[in-house]
Amino acid sequence: MVKIFVHPLNEYDVLVTTPGPASQHTVRRHNCALVLDAVAATPGVSRAGVAARTGLTKATVSTLVDRLVTASLVREEGRQHRSGPGRRGTSLSLSPDGPCGLGVEIGVDYLATCLMGLTGEVRDEHVRRIDNRDTPASRVLSRVAAELRGALQRAEREGLTVGGVGVAVPGLVEAPSGRVLVAPNLGWENIDLAAGLRTGVLDLPGELVVGNEANLAAVAELDAMRRGEETAPASFVHVSGEIGIGAGIVLDGALFDGANGFGGELGHFPVRPRGPRCSCGAVGCLERLAGQDAILSSAGADDVDDLVSRLDAGERTAVAAVRSAGRLLGSALSAVVNLLDIPAIVLGGTYARLYPWLADPLSAELSCRVMGSRWRPVEVRRSALGADAAVRGAAASALRAVLTDPDTYIASRTARSGSGIGATSG
To answer: Which residue numbers delimit the HTH marR-type domain (predicted)?
Structure first.
């Protein structure tokens, strides 16, 4: 038996879990994933190019490409340009008419959904402002289920196919089971989120992937950087600044989330030993002193819009509140940089909006605390996705399940629609 292991950054490994010969279906499943990965990695590649990249025969590649085209995962785009002799191949790329990933983010004070296509385009986004604190988990999951049903209805009206669902949660997630072990700012412990949502949305399409919101935001940010910048840093810390503070750590183009997937809890770094008690049970945690609520309280602002208006007007109390948060954030991040030698910090969420006032005090703190800053200053940049990073990362996580195992998606789609997409050999 061969198991496809879905890596957070669009990579996969084929793990042999039991000895013995592979079945024809298992071989086709593996080869189908190889072919789709080759097309995704090199848009415009021909069938011959796919065969060269994968080591598969041209006949097998042609059969599998036809299967992927029929399932709207791959699109043929006309003949390639050739300057020399020889037959021109047909260009292949991911289909913009293929399945969408449906992402949902469970924020402390909002719920967000996003429909994203295979080629990265956002087809629908929706944010509902609602306070999920001090609310039973079952009630919050009912709200999430309602948002999912609404997004699925909008997708149906637009003629979009949903290939899977990804959920971003501000807490420690046991990814294989979809269980949230703890989400302090929501007051959750040991919540079987996957089971709860499948009960609330009876016909949930495709796979359901649950992940930490900061990690998913970091992966989305990395994808955005790769599409938009040739010189984007391969290693960085993406800081999701909301009511809680999370960090997604990317090292050499891969997400680093620790041995158990629990890494990146920057908000619970102790920055003031005698500080206020945190929802996690400790005292003096960063998010209680530099999170969104702490900044608003110190600035005397009603919400982030009000805060930005005060900052634009140069109001001293607001500026002082943000600068204080920047220094505390810099102090915590300097420990991360000193430990891991990371060259860049990306400010996301609310911090992306506060970047013009936050960046200087944060950078100053890094300069005086990071040992190597004299020779390699740490870059502080604003997120390209801002508050949308986590929900887009959740949508992308659902699509990765399709991209790394397209044969299972095709079989599921066939069973659901009775469309008769054939089980060809390969």
So the answer is: 32-82
Shared domain check, 311 and 296 = yes
Whether 424 is in a domain gets the answer: no
Domain shared by 16 and 160, yes or no = no
CATH number, residue 80: 1.10.10.10
Read off the pTM: 0.86
User: How many structural domains is the chain composed of?
Assistant: 3
The number of angstroms, rounded, from the C-alpha of 197 to the middle of its chain's C-alpha atoms is 19
Question: Considering the domain boundaries, does residue 161 fall inside one?
Answer: yes
Based on the domain organization, do 206 and 111 belong to the same domain?
A: yes
The two three-digit tokens of residue 175, written as one number:
């990814």
The answer to whether position 20 is within a domain reads yes
Q: Which of 131, 134, 133, 114 is nearest to 122 (CA)?
A: 114
Residues 21 and 148 in one domain: no
- pLDDT tens across the length of the chain (426 residues): 333 333 333 333 333 344 445 677 788 889 999 999 999 999 999 999 999 999 999 999 999 999 999 999 999 986 655 555 545 568 999 999 999 999 999 999 999 999 999 988 999 999 999 999 989 999 999 999 999 999 999 999 999 999 999 999 999 999 788 899 999 999 999 999 988 888 877 678 888 999 999 999 999 999 888 887 667 789 999 999 989 999 999 999 999 988 888 999 999 999 998 899 998 999 999 999 999 999 999 999 999 999 999 999 999 999 999 999 999 999 999 999 999 999 999 999 999 999 999 999 999 999 999 999 999 999 999 999 999 999 999 999 999 989 999 998 998 877 766 544 444 434
* Residue 33 belongs to a domain: yes
d(CA 271, CA 332): 7
CA-closest candidate to residue 322, choices 288, 374, 362: 362
- In terms of Cα–Cα distance, which of 411, 330, 416, 354 is closest to 71? 411
By residue range, what is the domain housing residue 58?
Answer: 2-94
Beta strands in 138-227 (DSSP E): 162-169, 172-174, 179-183, 188-192, 207-212
**349 torsion bin: left (phi>0), alpha (psi -120 to 50), beta (else):** left
Q: Could you tell me which of 259, 263, 164, 156 has the C-alpha nearest to residue 206?
A: 164
Q: Are residues 37 and 132 in the same domain?
A: no
- The answer on 107 and 88 residing in a single domain is no
Backbone angles phi, psi at 246, to 5 degrees: -120, 160
